[in-house]
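Q&A log
Question type: sequence-to-structure
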Amino acid sequence: EPNHLLIRYVKRLCDSFRVLPLSTNDHPRHIPHLTTGASVPMRGIRMRSTASGRGSLLKEAQMSAESQSEKKVLVIGANGRVGRRVVHQLCQAGILTRCMTRDINGAQAATLSALSGVEMVQGDVTDPESVQRAMSGCNNCVACFGAERVASFADFFSDPTDDPRHPYSVNYQGVVTVVKAAQATPDFQKLVRVTGLSVGYSAFSPVAVLLNLVLSFTIKYQTKGEQAIRSSGLDYTIIRPGSLRDETPPDTLLRLSSSTGLKHHPVGKTGREDVASLIVASLHHPNASRCTFGCTWAQSGEDPKAASTHNRIAVGSEWVPLMDAIAGPDTEPLNEKPHELAVRVFLATTASVLGLALWLIAKVVAR
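Response status: OK
Response body:
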């Protein structure tokens, strides 16, 4: 099996030379897609040339293939728009991948199962036994799942534990289930979790209030999920992307923040392909250990040198150099925030304003 993996890895490496220049530069890397032949951005992975030429690169590829031959990454939420991009990029890197999804018979699952080195398993984060089975034999885990439940008026009076699709069950207890499965797995190394940039916002931020109101306090439970990861003792990377987009505009830069820089990270958009690249790069980057990243696109005309490294924010065209520059372990605590109070204050204020407006209208009509 390792020999076959080495042959596939070297073949992909040789194919990439027909697309990529050997020298490194400031432009995003592209590696041929496994199934279509089209190129997709891999901004977290850099191909390096050395003074001794391709012989050293071939030796490096062999060593990398051998080191990855016994390792496997579990991707939870692999059918999602970020998850399936992560699976493609892991395959392109020659890393064995196990995909856990609730639906293994759908079109997306069929596409993923056709990729080399991919194994599909059925599971749900609300089912601890299925998560433990999926985690067995894996060294790393990428958790890019999340609740997609729209709130109802009854949410203010009902118990969230009664609904398995509620953010309490998925974004919080689902993460706790993944953490426990990882803790029980021998030789487990790293958990990468994807949440959102809004987790770092004030509970009274309009964005946080709106998301909590519409999506059943999703930010509250994303925060509790992050707290569970931090206190688990596991090595982790938490990635908080901005508003996600499928297409990446040309000439975009990347903005990355960590630790103290998260509170200064501006609101913005980012691409799902770029988030997937950051996930893959975070799995083995030494500076990404026990670290939380915020990531968005930067303005195309923004000067990378103008970014503040004092606040741990950096701008550039590839993730790895940015991680080299500003990555580091979390130094500030992630405290509880008054999310429910903020929503109730918003609703009370809105009701008061509407009541006052109706009173004024009634008074005018009475004249």
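Response note: The chain has eleven helices and 13 strands.
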